[in-house]
Amino acid sequence: MADTATTETREAAMTDVQDTRVPTVVVDDVHIVYKVHGAGSGKGSATSALSRIISKKRSPAIREVHAVRGISFTSYRGEAVGLIGSNGSGKSTMLAAIAGLLPTERGAIYTNGQPSLLGVNAALMNDLTGDRNVILGCLAMGMSPAEVKTRYQDIVDFSGINEKGDFISLPMRTYSSGMAARLRFSIAAAKTHDVLLIDEALATGDQKFQRRSEDRIRELRKEAGTVFLVSHNNNSIRDTCERTIWIEKGELVMDGSTDDVMKEYEKFNH
Ligand SMILES: Nc1ncnc2c1ncn2[C@@H]1O[C@H](COP(=O)(O)OP(=O)(O)OP(=O)(O)O)[C@@H](O)[C@H]1O
Ligand SMILES: [Mg+2]
């Protein structure tokens, strides 16, 4: 009897410590190295390019950029995580790696569910109309044609593209950068993502749209996904994320509550 009691207490104690959160992304000591070809001297000029073609000499000049240096963290379902750091610190690289678009040199990234990268460079087609892009984008995210039909109007309304006239039927290349970013965000946000990676999409929209997208990020979080948000706008990180990871020169500086990390980050920037 005494034995069962101990087992029970031990089990109770174990459930107490046990982490019930569901991990969505595990980044384990990740290193990412870009290999830049033709970075040697004089490679840029037309004559040097021509002489290289004629001599068929292979350029040995491959420069390496070690963009991410041993970063580790785990994110959980329902979390919105801010990623901050100076220009060139490795934030976009980190997101692209989580999305599976860049190989890791060392370390590994495990994801639970499909990560979707929503960036300033997300692939919409400039020569197609906004309207075509909405449909293609939704299909590409795995929606059925019927689902696209039902979501279509919501997406266009959310984007606000048609507030100033019938722009949705014009090619994307006629949009301002803010309008294009809004449409991109609206398409991506129409779906519940397991892991949504947002790279500064909010920075390009106007204030009204920023508010709306922050609300949508909060909704996406409730729908049990994980959201990563890269931004130089400290307020939109504060308003959307309760956890923030700060990266400098490819290394993790701090990972904690947004309030704590922001305090240190703002000190660093002064
Ligand atoms: N395609 C690439 N080829 C080579 N080097 C790259 C490439 N993309 C980024 N880098 C380098 O990797 C490092 C990290 O860049 P990254 O774009 O991840 O920074 P970031 O934190 O997103 O910066 P920003 O705030 O300016 O967007 C930088 O040194 C950059 O020069
Ligand atoms: Mg970037």
From TrEMBL:
Highest taxon of source: Bacteria
Swiss-Prot/TrEMBL keywords: ATP-binding, Nucleotide-binding, Transport
SUPFAM superfamilies: P-loop containing nucleoside triphosphate hydrolases
Protein name: Teichoic acid transport system ATP-binding protein
SMART domains: AAA (SM00382)
Organism: Kitasatospora gansuensis
Gene3D superfamilies the UniProt entry points to: P-loop containing nucleotide triphosphate hydrolases (3.40.50.300)
Keyword field contains Nucleotide-binding: yes
